Amino acid sequence: MENGSPAAFITGIGVVSPIGVGRDAFWNALLANESGAGPITLFDPDGFDVRIAAECDSFEPKDFVDKKVVPRTDRFSQMALASSKLALEDANAWGFLNDSPERVGLIMGSGLGGVASMEDTQRTIDTKGPGRVNPFAVTKIMPNSAAAHIGIQLGVQGPSAAGALACTCGTDMIGLGYDLIRRGDAEIVICGASEATITPVIIAGFIAMKAMSRNNENPEEACRPYDENHAGFLIGEGSAVVILESEESAARREAEPYAKITGVGRTTDAHNMTDPDPEGRGVRRAMRLAVENAGLEGSQIGYINPHGTGTVAGDGPESHSMASINPDAKVSATKSTLGHSLGASGAIETAICALAIKERTIPPMRNLDTVADDCADLDYVVGEPRKVPDLEAALCSNLGVGGHNAAVVLERV
């Protein structure tokens, strides 16, 4: 019981990422400071000003999805299903799901859903006519299709929800899963987000917004959070699912939690469609609310995994917001390694925080040589992982296009 409310224990982690599939491959590559960046291969980017991304090139859908289901699902759903299976296996929770499917909840978000299938469908209409459209087109495109396929394929019968809150989506989904546990609506929640948006329309749109790094010659150096040469984000893709569990359920199953979620904060900037509030008021308040909700002081937050996209508009306000929480906290912006997987990023970064707390090791960030003048000079963990023997609490925070902010606090069990 934390601050008068039950905590949600993270007992399983499943990740599909540009640096590895599965918890161990992902975590080991992250600690080794490997980059997921490279040339775009998912489509021909010839003629695009941006031709780099962080793709999940080691992900093979048929390793996780029945061969009959693969052509009926978008890539984002396939990665979500893979992450869910990996997380359930990691938590050793298949037995509980099979025995009590109505007590297992499902929260799965995506910022844009099946956008690749949407673009494919439009190409079919343009080249072959509407009569040749795949009969599964709509169910591949809809943002809740990942949640639907997980429920159908795995037999989940508890409460479910699917959200689309731009780049804040993953963090917000963790918060919604936490709410289900706190209310007692489920004993276990399959919770996360997935995104697969390395597509012509999305890349062209972000290029038009002037939001992306154009360092095509050096993709591994493209994303530079808080650095004086930050020049935009590197788009990525991926999925992460955590198994959230009540304390009673975790104890009954003799599960070994990675960490527990004890606080959530959500706010809205009400400022601008594309740029965050230049004073950082929204994200600062979300961080503060999460810390207060956990019943902690800012000084107790030892690690912050921030949004950290490497944009001039976002880095400054966010860094000063972190400084207002705890100027001595260790900071590692892992999008410098993984790229920005939009709606999935908060789920992936929550998993990173849980692993960091469990291992008391903070993974490094890349490409920070000199802190930009408009950014706070914090204790950034760069180049090598850092052991923190007394790490007890971490904060994951994200900002979303449209002015959405969300933050979660995790504590050591």
CATH class of the largest domain: Alpha Beta
Share of β-strand residues: 15-25%
Low-confidence stretches: none
Mean pLDDT: 96
CATH architecture of the largest domain: 3-Layer(aba) Sandwich
Cα(first) to Cα(last) distance is: 12 Å
Estimated helix fraction: 25-40%
Kindly list the characteristics that best describe this protein.
413 residues; Peroxisomal Thiolase, Chain A, domain 1; 33% helix; alpha/beta; 19% strand; two-stranded antiparallel ribbon; 12-stranded mixed beta sheet
If you had to describe this structure to a student in words, what would you say it looks like?
The strands form 3 sheets. Strands 1, 2, 5, 6, 7, 8, 9, 10, 11, 13, 15 and 16 form a 12-stranded mixed sheet that branches. Strands 3-4 form a two-stranded antiparallel ribbon. Helices cover 33% and strands 19% of the residues. The model has no long low-confidence stretch (mean pLDDT 96). It has 413 residues and is α/β, with parallel strands linked by helices. It has 2 domains: 9-252, Thiolase/Chalcone synthase (Peroxisomal Thiolase, Chain A, domain 1); 263-411, Peroxisomal Thiolase, Chain A, domain 1 (3-Layer(aba) Sandwich), CATH 3.40.47. It contains 13 helices and 16 strands. The protein is globular.
